[in-house]
Design brief:
The longest helix has about 35 residues, at about 50-85. The chain has 7 helices and no strands. It is elongated. It starts with a helix and ends with a helix. α1 (about 1-25) crosses α3 (about 50-85), α2 (about 35-45) crosses α6 (about 135-160) and α4 (about 90-110) packs parallel to α6. The mean pLDDT is about 80. The chain is an all-alpha fold and about 190 residues long. The chain has one domain (about 1-190). The protein has helices spanning about 1-25, 35-45, 50-85, 90-110, 120-130, 135-160, 165-190.
């Protein structure tokens, strides 16, 4: 299976990496690990340029996130006002979301790009909350860059050290645990004030 993914990513090239990370950053939950870990392995072999992959994948993340942001900005409020009561969302939740993003939007988007289960929806919520576009782009780009670097580097180091991807997965788990802990500590600090 690993070799099949490597061959697929090799065939896709930089454009395929861009498209895959773009799709992964919308509502379609395709894990970026599926393409980025093999891409990192191929970079270790010299097939791809490491930094080229990082730039390409981050551009894909930003583009996909902008799609979700625009959908949230354009249609999100209307959807929540019309159908929100079916899932216990009220107009006051929109107000609270806007206030939260006015205070903590940059941090929320940055950390949201690193958290599994959150990263697919954070841009949509930022759009609903009408977060400033420039701040959104910067936060999403930085969060996306960090996440793409982590998984790209796991693939790169897996190939360089001749281990299996499974042997490197503990790095992902530790990274996610650390980011989650930091997010929790920051949330706790901000919620006190």
């Amino acid at each position: 299976m690993e070799q099949l993914l490597i061959e697929l990513v090799k065939h896709l090239g930089y454009l395929g990496i861009f498209i895959a990370t773009l799709i992964e950053s919308t509502f379609i939950p395709i894990p970026a690990e599926v393409t980025m870990i093999p891409a990192g392995m191929l970079a270790a072999e010299g097939y791809f340029n490491y930094w080229g992959l990082l730039v390409t994948s981050t551009a894909g993340v930003l583009t996909g996130s902008l799609v979700n942001y625009w959908i949230g900005l354009r249609f999100g409020r209307a959807i929540i006002i019309k159908y929100g009561s079916y899932v216990l969302l009220k107009h006051q939740h929109l107000m609270k979301t806007e206030l939260f993003f006015a205070k903590y939007g940059k941090l929320a988007v940055f950390l949201g790009r690193l958290l599994v289960g959150v990263k697919h929806y954070i841009a949509f919520v930022a759009g609903i909350a009408r977060m400033r576009l420039k701040a959104f782009i910067i936060s999403t780009s930085l969060g996306g860059l960090v996440w793409m670097w982590i998984i790209l580097h796991i693939g790169y180091m897996t190939k360089r050290s001749n281990t299996t991807v499974v042997g490197e997965l503990e790095i992902i788990l530790i990274s996610v645990a650390v980011v989650t802990l930091i997010a929790w500590l920051i949330k706790r600090k901000f919620m006190k004030h």
